[in-house]
Structures are given as structure tokens and as C-alpha cells.
Structure prediction request, 383 residues.
Amino acid sequence: MAALPSDIHPTDEPQPKKVILELEDGSKFAGTGFGFHGPTSGEVVFNTSMVGYVESLTDPSYRGQILVLTYPLIGNYGVPASDKDCFESSRIQASGLIVSTAHSDQSHATAARSLDHWLAEENVPGVEGIDTRKLTILLRERGTMLGRVLPADYSGEPVALFDPNSTDIVPEVCVRQPQLLRDLGHDPNSRTELGHVPRPSAKKRVILVDCGVKLSIRRELLRRGVEVLQVPADYDYTGERFDGILVSNGPGNPERCGSTVSVLHRALALNRPVFGICLGCQLIALAAGARTYKLRYGHRGQNQPCREKGTDRCRLTSQNHGYAVDVTTLPRDWQVWFENANDGSVEGIRHSRRPVSAVQFHPEGRPGPLDSEDLFDRFVETL
Prediction:
């Protein structure tokens, strides 16, 4: 056997990066780091999906959260180029990623890089080798908790536990100025700034209240031939020309979004078609006078069954939320549209007389089943 060259030593192989996940109740989990090697903190939540880690990590609803994926092998199909439809925003929104096993050798025709490289590029810590089954059971029994990821040899400043529910974090993930979108074209992210519109349009116009909207929601609207005026969550759009309003998904505690609820309350009085998705459902409920509450561990996954009230129909849905509408506080003119078949929580509401409705799940899927895309058709037909 030939001897190794004198400048090559087996001990030069990169050593595993040991990291610790600490939860606010004192629980600790040791693992191996990948991606960015540094500290992070946030609300630790779990998602039961088998696929869709690119969509989930770029979903603005995960802002301020450390995402635990229960499926045991993550990363096997790599990460595509950032112009693909599976990206729900321009960057990773989650504060960290916890998996059982991270696969570094991607095997998909569209893969442009590995999950490890992507996380490193975006300064997002990943942890593998943790017993995610034990961690998930703990979160189910005690509820979601704040936590932090620290390198085992960390010696920097103390890392405070960040609570995304204690403040309004929606401004971090929404547009800063109104933007007018007319069609998908060749770039689903293309847009025209308000004030520089080249010509008038006869299309129906939808106000998209951006609370951290997924790009796939924009695509679903544009595919149906409407014009979309995407506005910041706290923007007063009641004086704009529009035919309907869609209130988007987003992160954090809905009761922290006071300015968004205030504008929405006035908009409901205009009697225009309004549709809400996820956080948008909670905000519409608040604007109508109802209350919301925090679920113990939320609904995050691609197979949540939702039963349509008054029928035998049940939809399998994609979900990502930690709050729900308190059914006991709904005003008299409002009714439950969908309910979760697992725990009975509210999954959709609608007004008994006005064209206003909302769902807690994601009808655009991505990741997840596309069985509920017809809800976009219903909304556009009411314009």
C-alpha cells in the first residue's frame, strides 16, 4: 500500500461541530451542527411534513421560529435555484433548523446546492443527530417553547430567548411600499411600483394585504387574471380603487397587529369581497370583534383534515399556524365554515350575509395538497 504524501494527514478531516439545543424549561439536546455555525434563538415548533423543506424554510410565517422537522431524513433532494416556484420568499425566514439526519448529497435534477451550503450562505444554523421524536413529544405535552441553539464551545455574549409572539414582527416580512402586479410573465417576482404604472387596466383589482405573504398566493391570484395591489400590513388602502381584499398569512401573534386590524375593520364596512388565509383568518376575526388564542403546539404539516360544517366533506390541507379563532367570541352574523377534524378548532369562518370568508389552512398548498385551490376561484368569482 502506497504511503500517504507527507502533507496529507487523516486528522485534517473536518471535525463534527457539536451544538446544544436549550429549551426554556431547562431541557437540553446535544447534536451536530451543519449550515451556519453560530448561535440563534426563537420559538421551537415542529412540522410533520415528509417533503417541502425549501417551501417551509422560506415561508415568512416561520419568522422568529426554530423549525423541527419530524421526518427522519431531510436534504436528500437538495435545494434548487432561487428562481424556482418552491421558494416562498427571497430568503430563509426560520431562525434555525432541527432534524434527525441531514443528507448532504442531493439527488435531484433541479438541485443547485445542498441544504448544508444553503443554510451556511444565509447564516442559519442547522442541527442534526437530535432525537426529534423525543423533542416533538416534549413539545406536544408541554407546548411550544422558546429555545436557543449554541455551539458547544460558544464563549460569546449571552443569547437571550427571542419570543416572536411578544411583539409585532409582521413589518419584518412585508413590503415597505405598495406594489402593483399585473401578470406572472417570465418572473413570478416581477412587479411595478405604485406611481409608475404605464397604462390603466380594466382588470379586477385585489388588494393583497401583505402580512408576510407566500409568493404562491400571489401566483394563484395572478393566474386567475386579476390585478394585485400588494400593500404593507399597516397601509390604509380604504381609499384605493379595488374590487376585493385578500389578507395574507404571516408570523407572530395576531393580537399584536393592531394597525392592520384597525384598517381591516373599516374595510369590512365597505361590503366588498374579502378573503383571508392563515393569519389573515385571525385578523378578519379580530376586526369583526372576535378573539384569538394560542394553540398548545399549533398545526404545522401537510395532512391536516378539515371538515366543512354542515356537510360530509373533509379536505386534507397544508397548515402552518400557532393561533386559532375562539369560536365562543364570534359575533352573531359570523359562522364557522371549517373545523379541524382532529381537535375541533376553527379552520374557517364566513359572514352570513356579506361576501367575507377566511380559512386557517393554506389553499395554495406548496408544500402540500392542492385540493383547496378552488377557494381562490370562489373568491375571484365574487369580485
Notes: Helices lie at 53-57, 115-121, 132-142, 215-223, 258-268, 279-288, 374-381. The chain has two domains: 14-151, 170-381. DSSP finds seven helices and 22 strands in the chain.
